[in-house]
Design brief:
Chain A has 585 residues and is of the alpha/beta class. Helices cover 36% and strands 20% of the residues of chain A. Chain B has helices at 24-38, 58-61, 74-84, 96-102, 104-113, 158-164, 178-190, 212-218, 232-240, 259-262, 281-285, and strands at residues 46-50, 65-68, 89-95, 117-123, 169-174, 194-200, 219-221, 245-252. Classes of the chains: A alpha/beta (585), B alpha/beta (288). Bound molecules: thiamine diphosphate, iron/sulfur cluster (SF4) and magnesium ion.
Amino acid sequence: MFEDFNWAVGGEAGDGIDSTGKIFAQALSRAGRHVYTSKDFASRIRGGYTAYKIRTSTDRIESVVDRLDILIALTQRTIDENRDELHDESVIIYDGERSWEAEIPDHVTGLSVPLRDLAEEAGGAIMQNVVALGAACAVADFPIEYLDSALEKRFGDKGEAIVDSNCQAARLGQSHVEETLDVSFEYDLETTEEEYVLLNGDEAIGLGAIAAGCRFYAGYPITPATAVMEYLTGRIEQFGGTVVQAEDELAAVNMALGAARSGARAMTATSGPGIDLMTETFGLVAASETPLVIVDVQRSGPSTGMPTKQEQGDLNTLLYGGHGEVPRFVVGPTTIAECFHKTIEAFNLAERYQTPVYLVSDLALAVTDQTYPADEFDMSAVEIDRGKLVESDELSTWQDEDGRFKPHAITEDGVSPRALPGTPGGVHMTTGLEHDELGRRTEDPELRNEQVEKRARKMETAQETESWEVREFGDPDAETLVLSWGSNEGSIREAMDRLAADGIDVRFLSVPYLSPRPDLGEAIEHAETTVVIECNATGQFADLVERDALTRVDRVNKYDGIRYKADDVEAAIRERVADPAEVSP
Amino acid sequence: MSSETVHFTDFKSDKRPTWCPGCGDFGTMNGMMKALANTGNDPENTFIVAGIGCSGKIGTYMRSYAFHGVHGRALPLGIGAKLANPELEVMVAGGDGDGYSIGAGHFIHAVRRNVDMTYVVMDNRIYGLTKGQFSPTSREEFETPTSPEGPQQAPVQPLALAFSAGASFLGQTFASHAQRHTEVLEAAIDHDGFALVNVYSPCVTFNDLDTYDYFREALVDLGETDHDPTNYASAKEKVMDFETTHEGVIYRDPDSVAYDDRKGLAADATELPDGAPDGVSALVDEFK
Ligand SMILES: Cc1ncc(C[n+]2csc(CCOP(=O)(O)OP(=O)(O)O)c2C)c(N)n1
Ligand code: SF4
Ligand SMILES: [Mg+2]
């Protein structure tokens, strides 16, 4: 019973909520359970409320639900914020000895555990959250050895004594519930022999970058992209790379561009406000034909917007941002594992076509920790394609009659040879001014046309030769077609499972390529109703779909800052099912 | 190409400069080419990043690996290029508007970061390319179409700005004092860290105040005084003396260690295997 189990810890910002939640998630992952987490930040009630929520199951899960089985509440606000998610079987763990008088909803069980006192007994009040984790193990009937192992991972580098006192604190919490209070519950968290890794979307992008040979990262801190930089720092150096914290995003993108020009695989990551600044240089990256990966981890806009909230509102700026006509790739992973795979692909596209790639992720992917089998991140499958990088001995084919290298040579596929600085015989300049094959400024109409057409031809070549595969789920012959991009994939898939159980079949195409993008026309024609689901108000992806397929689609939009839950998607699709009469009872 | 055979004309491209006859940028560029050749560099290991402005055309007129980017962002581009391949000789060149106005933020942080590179500012105290508006180094009384009564604001003091940001090398030269100009640039190239050389490079078309004659009259050549550039106190005095315009190496920190050396960066960041780098699977295990 309750195989799909939901757990949360909440309190004030600064209460160590994130690290407490992460420890429990790690314990569940090490116990061979799937984990999908989310974070709540201050919202309905003003103040510093924050919570780390875990949904766990022995099956694969990829979305959140509005239900809580165990809630560790460090503040009354935590209880109030989550009142609607509590049910008759829910248990709230709180410290009744502390100054606040907990108001526990009538239908819910409140367990008062002297978190601080027990923590002090174990060696310090700082461990009170760990006491609560021990108590949670008791309530959920979860083997505490997995918590020990997660505590060892978290505190191992601080020494054995610290690990031991944390494990002791957890045991005091556990035995308080089991022995002092002498209560037990119906929860019984099964463990399995599966081996999982637990990571978030920003970490997956960082991991993908290192796997793809990225050796230079420059960035400026911004939620929710900072974790990419923090992940790379201290790790990329082990592979001969470096991270620079730049003075702003104008500098970050130019540093990455310079590094790419030198020949390193280079990347920068930011969110909407930083994309605005980087747009200044974006056209230069494309005009100079330099391979560069720019990550946009979207958050709610416009302007500073809601920095800790979900939105997919940057699509138009990524597709069209920048003056003039700028060729580009826009690739958008739809899951955390895809953040890894698409990052590697982004580097290959960038170098193969010497064109900037926007890798667009979103807050829901960035802040969610999710489990995967370790072989999902199979390093032996990684292929690095550097495109038309030429060595000195091949240079002569690419020189003019005076022996000058042509970095923007006109070719059939639009891609020119690339000689890195330091290569004998490859000396050349390039510029953001329109240029000739030699990279020198020109305003000659014919040469201008040649370069515009050459850059466009690269995109045509890419459109024809790359695979642009969509991720397809559900019944290929269903009358209802659902299209989406970004992190919504998980909630849509769960909603589909529930609908299928009710006899409502849906075909779902999760689209990871925004530009160039696959032709969805046939799928749309085949369906009775097409529903486009996305996290923004105007339907930016729906606009693209309508334009490509010369048709109208149904739009489902959400822009309140909260990611889609399966419930939302389920309700929206039910409402739009082509002909309700055909639905089997 | 070995360094013995490099002549400064090897750094000259076959593109004829379109600068106005008499423009200071000719002299500035000649000195750069000579200094690069004299310090054992060749066009194949040199990467020049040019700003936007009349000055920024220098990347076209010289022959080397070169990049001409967007207005004001030459320094971060040069920093990225150097850090990804520390074996390159990186030289950034641009105007006073490019470096001290739109790029002022990058200027301060480039000084602090102390990456091993040379920054040549071709300071004509005006916006040349956009035809004669006042620049951040223009004098308060300088009348231009956008400052009919003068800019009404104090000029930027680049040397003092850089000094207060912890500069490890400060030089100032004059485009028509070819020998001194070249010597200072050579010292800047040899310096281990970020070297700023502010070059007075007169605009003969739009600036009738800061002319060749003016600079010839005003400049005090530190090479003919007993100034010791490694003496911090003496350098500070020169840098803070806004009444006097100095020429020569003003400050040089002999103990400077460049950022790239502090970070221990290797030269092979540009070479990659065909697949994921060895040892990367350990990163996956970290998530267990
Ligand atoms: C973003 C942007 N704003 C404005 C311009 C127009 N612009 C080109 S050069 C320049 C000023 C150049 O002055 P300076 O850097 O002193 O170079 P100079 O021409 O004097 O050598 C300006 C404002 C531009 N190219 N880009
Ligand atoms: S306008 Fe001034 S700075 Fe520009 S080329 Fe002519 S003299 Fe030189
Ligand atoms: Mg100027």
